[in-house]
Design brief:
The structure is a single chain. With 289 residues, the protein is α/β, with parallel strands linked by helices. It folds into 2 domains: 53-202, Rossmann fold; 216-288, Ribonucleotide Reductase Protein R1, domain 1 (Orthogonal Bundle), CATH 1.10.40.50. Helix content is 33%, strand content 23%. It has 11 helices and 11 strands. It has helices spanning 4-10, 74-86, 98-103, 107-119, 135-142, 157-164, 206-209, 224-227, 247-253, 259-271, 276-288; strands at residues 18-22, 28-33, 39-43, 51-56, 60-66, 90-96, 123-126, 146-150, 171-178, 184-193, 199-202. It has a 7-stranded mixed sheet. Strands 1-2 form a two-stranded antiparallel ribbon. Strand 3 (39-43) and strand 4 (51-56) form a beta hairpin. The structure holds guanosine-5'-diphosphate and zinc ion. Zinc ion (ZN) binds next to helix 9. Guanosine-5'-diphosphate (GDP) is lined by residues 96-97, 99-100, 128-130, 151, 153-159.
């Protein structure tokens, strides 16, 4: 008998490398799944101690945003940066529709707004699927790698991929997750093989599992520029949201911490569950009441 944990681990995920034996028929048989270099997983809906692997062996996360239409949304970029780091993928930020900044003569403003990510050491590309600008650089980034795509709809992901490889076909696989009750949940995963070598994986799932299990007090580690100044806050456990004497807020006022990054920090912070310590303290308080 296999335990649920073994069953779950035995499922072949998109991106898995497997050993296939030929059994005389047309189709081979998967004999073994080779050890995975990375996994993109989310908690199993029905067994929370288990993980459902959505993509195996991915190398990098391509975060696609657009300068306009839809307008650049730094908070979403930051959420994906956190998701990449938590899943061991190296992030690349691609800001598409840069032709719209050119048209508005706003290219300098655009670069200034994005400089924060360059300063933080992230790889960044400015592209236009329309004019072809930056598309060769994007090709270099994707070459030979397994890249997971992230970005809201309408930013130009499909158009960019088509510029890289005209007529590419999206192959859609469904990752199923069966429970004892016979119900199952599915996640759509598209896998694209690039002729130049490499794979592109498109899954809407990245959005939901990126920040899974993250607590409020875990957040600051993903904001190195905030972590660097927080030692000067008046309170040792300052969350930089409402406390007096907050050095982070002072640094934002002085322009030493970018405003957009601080805003995304506070906005994401508000959506996260409290720290484990705080939760325990509240439980003890309730017990004594
Ligand atoms: P997806 O949902 O991310 O796959 O976005 P699509 O590739 O479907 O693109 C959405 C719309 O944006 C389409 O009308 C595209 O023609 C347009 N688009 C894509 N890339 C660019 C670009 O670089 N510049 C401009 N101006 N429009 C673009
Ligand atoms: Zn503070």
């Amino acid at each position: 008998m296999t335990t649920p944990r073994e069953r779950s681990a035995a499922v072949v995920a998109v991106g898995d490398e497997v050993i296939v034996s030929e059994n005389g028929g047309e189709r081979g048989v998967v004999e073994a799944v080779l050890p995975r270099r990375s996994i993109l997983a989310r908690p199993d809906v029905f067994h929370h101690h288990l993980k459902q692997v959505i993509v195996a062996n991915a190398d990098q996360l391509l975060i696609v945003a657009s300068w306009r239409d839809p307008k650049l949304w730094p908070e979403l970029v930051d959420r994906y940066l956190i998701a990449a780091e938590r899943n061991g993928l190296s992030p690349v930020i691609c800001v598409n529709k840069i032709d719209l900044a050119d048209a508005e003569l706003r290219i300098a403003a655009c670069r200034a707004e994005l400089q924060v990510y360059v300063d933080l050491g992230y790889r960044m590309l400015l592209t236009s699927a329309l004019t072809g600008k930056g598309v060769d650089k994007l090709k270099d980034v994707l070459h030979g790698q397994t890249t997971v795509l992230a970005g809201m709809s309408g930013v130009g992901k499909s158009t960019l991929l088509n510029a890289i490889q005209p007529g590419l076909e999206l192959r859609t696989a469904e990752v199923s997750d069966w429970s004892h009750t016979g119900r199952h949940t599915t996640t759509q995963v598209s896998l694209i093989r690039l002729q130049m070598g490499g794979f592109v994986v498109d899954t809407p799932g990245i959005r939901e599992f990126g920040l899974n299990d993250l607590r409020q007090d875990d957040l600051v580690q993903f904001y190195p520029e905030i972590a660097a100044v927080q030692g000067r806050c008046r309170f040792g456990d300052c969350t930089h949201t409402h406390e007096p004497g907050c050095a982070v807020k002072a640094a934002v006022r002085q322009g030493n911490v970018p405003k957009a990054r601080f805003e995304s920090y506070t906005s994401i912070f508000a959506t996260l569950p409290k720290s484990r310590a705080e939760e325990r303290a509240q439980a003890v308080e309730r017990a004594w009441r």
